[in-house]
Write a structure and sequence with these properties.
By secondary structure, the chain is an alpha+beta fold. The chain folds into two domains: about 50 residues, no CATH class; about 40 residues, no CATH class. The chain contains five helices and five strands, in the order E-E-E-E-E-H-H-H-H-H. The strands form two sheets. A three-stranded antiparallel sheet has the order 3-4-5.
Length: about 100
């Protein structure tokens, strides 16, 4: 369906039958219910791969070996610490409120 806007431009509504782009990482076949990353079915990855393994797959196009996985896990762990001011803020908020009130409930 084509829609005409006030400024005279036209646009097709929805994305049905529209190819947005091609991808070297992802394969999608909505009619068959297939979603795959780098040749691996998303359901297999969800059941059998860790978060870190999928990150490595998306970044490098293949699953990591044990040494590569260990290196990636170490790099990610090193990047996790929060700055001290953020930790103090969270500790202060936790002493003053319950988790639900911090979330706006």
């Amino acid at each position: 369906m084509i829609e005409r806007y006030e400024h005279g431009r036209e646009a097709q509504s929805g994305l049905e039958d529209t190819v947005a782009t091609s991808s070297a990482i992802c394969y999608l076949d909505g009619d068959r219910g297939v979603l795959a990353y780098c040749g691996y079915d998303i359901h297999d990855l969800a059941r059998n791969a860790t978060f870190e393994e999928v990150c490595y797959l998306l970044w490098h196009g293949r699953l990591p070996n044990r040494a590569e996985l260990g290196d990636l896990q170490s790099q990610l762990a090193a990047a996790r610490p929060l700055p001290e001011p953020i930790l103090r803020l969270m500790q202060h908020a936790a002493r003053r409120r319950t988790a639900w009130t911090c979330c706006g409930r």
